[in-house]
Design brief:
This protein is α/β, with parallel strands linked by helices and about 325 residues long. The protein has 2 domains: about 170 residues, Thiolase/Chalcone synthase (Peroxisomal Thiolase, Chain A, domain 1), CATH 3.40.47.10; about 150 residues, Peroxisomal Thiolase, Chain A, domain 1. The protein contains 11 helices and 13 strands. It has a 5-stranded mixed sheet with strand order 1-7-6-4-5, sandwiched between helices. Strand 12 and strand 13 form a beta hairpin. The two termini are about 35 Å apart. The model has no long low-confidence stretch (mean pLDDT about 95). The chain binds oxa(dethia)-CoA. Oxa(dethia)-CoA binds next to helix 2, helix 6, helix 8 and strand 12. The site of oxa(dethia)-CoA (UT7) has 22 residues, from helix 2, helix 6, helix 8 and strand 12. It catalyses: malonyl-[ACP] + acetyl-CoA + H(+) = 3-oxobutanoyl-[ACP] + CO2 + CoA. It is an enzyme of class 2 (transferase). Keywords: Acyltransferase, Cytoplasm, Fatty acid biosynthesis, Fatty acid metabolism, Lipid biosynthesis, Lipid metabolism, Multifunctional enzyme, Transferase.
Length: about 325
Amino acid sequence: MSARAAVLAGLGGYLPPRTVTNEELSRRFDTSDEWIRTRTGVERRHVADPGVSTGDLAVEAGHRALKSAGGGQGAVDMLIVATATPDQPVPATAPDVAARLGLGTAAAFDVQAGCSGFLYGIATASAALTAGHATRVLLIGAEVFSTVLNPGDRTTAVIFGDGAGAVVLRAGTADEPGALLAFDLGADGTGKDLITIPGGGARQRSTGRPPQPDAGYIHMRGQETFAEAVRRMGQSSQAVLDRVGWSADEVDHVVGHQANLRILRTLAVHLGVDQERVVSHIQEAGNTSSASIPLALADAGSRGRFRTGDRLLLTAFGAGLTWGSAALTWPGLTPE
Ligand code: UT7
């Protein structure tokens, strides 16, 4: 009998309707459409309106994933929200999202692993399903990064955007299309200063001093982050390929964290995967952190890019430092 595995059963994405183009940013910052396109691949990003939070986007994406999975909210017994921009420090964003989605008393909690949150979430969901702690899990990656962007920092303003993506996972077996077959997760806290939002936590409050004016904004050391992203996603992807027993040639699609198109292109070269197998959604949405991989999956899936049984490699890198990768086959579902 085939081994137990989590199986992808539903997929949905939601981008807030308002877009900000590179042209608009070049009126606010010393930058240009040409610089942003060539250095990052981003053409526009979606931005939540004032008053719209991460939980609001998560509910929209959650609805869509449940619809893609054929409805049946009552059967979801665990909700995980992966986010680095939660609605508030306490409580977690997930219980409120669960209540708004009508999930009853399903277990609900947040995962915070920076831009690797979706990969950490999918590994956690998969473990719960294969251990028998859950039979159906809704995992949502959702972010409103626009709320933590320093209005004076062009580097972060050009790449980050808002959005949410969600998957429904069910208990199944490894021989089914849609099965998650292998994972790799890792972290290195010695690199914690590369990407930070320093304020708002116990570290800052424990000093007894008021926070610096920019403490609530994201700070990123771009060049070093770029190099670490390529290195860590490369190593992690290779670890997953070794575990699942696929050669680079056998990977049909690489769905990497959409941080920068140049990172995805360089990663493909390091892995020895053809560039046309790299899935990119960054043109439309920028870097949506925990939401970027499910959004890229939903976009490519709805365009008919994947065929049932195709081999997908997911890989992400983010603040922490954290990274993670997963191998799965495509189930042939219709994303919402
Ligand atoms: O999601 C979590 C993980 N995050 C990432 O993986 C992001 C990784 N980093 C990056 O994507 C890139 O480092 C950035 C897009 C953030 C920056 O691109 P870069 O090619 O690394 O730029 P740089 O920092 O090396 O700067 C190159 C030049 C500098 O000018 P000089 O010193 O050469 O004259 C910058 O001042 O580009 C300048 N620059 C800009 N110019 C126009 C930096 N940002 C901008 C900008 N517009 N927005």
